[in-house]
Amino acid sequence: MAESTEARKLVYLVTGGCGFLGEHVVRMLLQREPRLLELRVFDLHLGPWLEELKTGPVQVTAIQGDVTQAHEVTAAVAGAHVVIHTAGLVDVFGRASPETIYEVNVQGTKNVIEACVQTGTRFLVYTSSMEVVGPNIKGHPFYRGNEDTPYEAVHSHPYPCSKAQAERLVLEANGREVHGGLPLVTCALRPTGIYGEGHQIMRDFYHQGLRLGGRLFRAIPASVEHGRVYVGNVAWMHVLVARELEQRAALMGGQVYFCYDESPYKSYEDFNMEFLGPCGLRLVESRLLVPYWLLVLLAALNALLQWLLRPLFLYAPLLNPYTLAVANTTFTVSTDKAQRHFGYVPLFSWEDSRTRTIHWVQTMEGSAR
Ligand SMILES: NC(=O)c1ccc[n+]([C@@H]2O[C@H](COP(=O)([O-])OP(=O)(O)OC[C@H]3O[C@@H](n4cnc5c(N)ncnc54)[C@H](O)[C@@H]3O)[C@@H](O)[C@H]2O)c1
Ligand SMILES: C[C@@H](CO)CCC[C@@H](C)[C@H]1CC[C@H]2[C@@H]3[C@H](O)C=C4C[C@@H](O)CC[C@]4(C)[C@H]3CC[C@]12C
User: Fold this and answer.
1) What SUPFAM superfamilies does the record point to (predicted)?
2) Does domain 10-199+228-262+333-348 have CATH number 3.40.50.720?
3) Which atom of ligand 2 has the smallest separation from the CA of 217?
């Protein structure tokens, strides 16, 4: 006991620590990083669940703050050994303006980098996204590619553009001298579509299915593969990267890693049915009812309605030209770079990930069970 207290000396900061991924990172750090002395959780909106974490051996400091405010970020970063920057505005539905998305994702990341440089924090882990690579606006498939697979990464939507810009800033900052004279070590993790306990879009699909009498209608051909990764494994990768970055700075600094695990390669909808099926929903084959051209038309109509209704209220359905294109373009990864560079092996098997997610859906408010 005395030994483990003595070993506790590190201060970590998790930005966006109350988000879907951020909460899992926070909990994983508390469970799996024995050297942790203090964990700072920085978010625009603090979750009430943080209170229950404050009774353990690690000092959990909740900081309500905004990454777009440089002084708030600097104050939170000062004295931290490692920053895990997961905060971001995840919006592909047109809820926020492009300016706001840039402000949070790009300027917010700049603020985090500058805070590290000014205060002498040496290790920065950035939560990037598969979207910095693709699918691109040309709809080219990325079939089980890795970090070195050539791909034309061209985007027009503000979300992937902002994530790509922020990732570039983080990688370029690797090696910059921080206060005290030592070099900053950075790297970026690129999750594919994350799923698991707390996933808002899974929640939306589930409730939509309940409203439609327990049915969801297939819109995407089963042959289109969409990469998915369990949130617990993404969190575990963050913890491992943060832990190994100091020892393996020369190898890992400035690198990008796709997040992967044993989740099967399936279409977005078939994958969701792995969890929603056991919770009582079924996927109706509707190719004859809704041909693809009609979906394209509906998506365009949704975009038009969003624009027309904006002065009155926010109309932001799941289906729009961008989400349809992402869901309808194969994008899957197959790589072992994280294992080679920092010994990553998924913590949760596919069976565990599936069981945990099903259990979460079943206990959701308004669930069929
Ligand atoms: N969900 C996915 O499938 C997915 C996939 C790849 C990458 N990512 C990335 O992972 C990260 C986390 O995503 P998530 O799905 O958990 O989203 P989320 O919206 O659940 O979490 C983001 C968190 O950031 C916080 N935040 C937003 N703006 C902020 C600001 N100005 N200042 C401080 N905090 C702010 C939010 O309050 C929220 O708690 C993001 O950077 C996202 O781009 C997500
Ligand atoms: C056409 C609809 C019929 O059912 C299905 C629409 C599904 C879309 C809403 C989602 C399909 C793919 C998702 C994205 C993907 O998983 C990866 C992402 C990267 C991440 O950084 C942010 C979230 C997202 C863009 C994710 C958003 C929702 C989808 C577009």
Assistant:
1) NAD(P)-binding Rossmann-fold domains
2) yes
3) 4
